[in-house]
Amino acid sequence: MNHYYVDLHIHIGRTWTGKPVKITGAKSLTFTNIIEHARHEKGLNMVGIIDSHSPEVIQEVESLLASGQVVEHPAGGLIFGELTVIPGSELEIYDENCHGPIHVLCFMPNLAAMKEFSNWLSAHLKNIQLSSQRLYVTGLKLQQKVKELGGIFIPAHVFTPFKSLYGKGVKSSLTEVFDPELIDGIELGLSSDTEMADKIAEIHRYTFVTNSDAHSLAKIAREYQVVAMEEPTFSELEKALKTEDGRRIMANYGLDPKLGKYHKTVCSECLYPAHEADQVCEQCGSKKIIKGVADRIMELKTTEIGPEGRPPYIHQVPLEFIPGLGPRLLEKLVNHFGSEMAILHEVPFAALKEIVPEKIATLILLAREGKIHLAAGGGGKYGKIAEI
Ligand SMILES: [Zn+2]
Ligand SMILES: [Zn+2]
To answer: 370 or 27: whose pLDDT is higher?
Structure first.
């Protein structure tokens, strides 16, 4: 069995003609640029490119197929040299059964299925060009359509306070909105990890995935997983999500939840820490208290003990969080050591020290060993490395 670095949630900012797809996404985030960056700078082997339903993106992929730059694998997935692309789409469900919008990820085995999915979607949402659109069908209907097309269905960043399954979407159980049999995995999101999520017993049966939700090239692979598969294809990924025939997630690599934007409960106006029960901010009097993921999970908690056999969740501090490590130094490091993966996890201290100042090399090492001191994020602001 081989091991592959996989990040399944990367958005497209613009199409090849410059039309917006994810409006808040970077202009440089085009299909072709994502492939180049994921493969060369980040060192990933498989990526899920979200927003592949957008008609101009489909055209772009068609032209890459026609020119032979991409080939479709018979077992699913678009093969771009060393990198496999799984075409996907993020959608928003807000049907009569949910209490707030819920984001979900849908992946298709090949371009034909994605085209059919896109056609179906266009009849049920307002703008087929754009990302993360609200879909005017029920969660159940969407699940059934995805399965009919041979796709994979994964609720996205399930604990974030807005637009997620457990944020506001359901009162206590995913069965309020979805058919539990038609869920293939659970995406944890940046502000939680395996230990936190396993406080909810009804998701013990699912594999957890950790993805970047990148809106810029730099953020690709800030979360990812190492997956044991025979080959990097769609059907192998499907098996890994079901832990079949030795295929499985070997480890989840994710931000320390404290670095996420919604870890602790704070006032969104002044970011002053708040208690879960607070109605107004003690500091500024604002009523905009945003409940953090940690407190939300405590509310939903149904068990203390997680299931057996979960892969380890390895906390990582992406290089862009390291103080003093700007884009130019990062480029120098990547040029020298090949990829961010190598710098984060493999390159010895002595070698790092030859390229960057000792203080930065020390921080990279401490981050790798989980010994770095972090100040928790909240209210939409990332956590950060505390002063040392
Ligand atoms: Zn989302
Ligand atoms: Zn997203």
So the answer is: 27
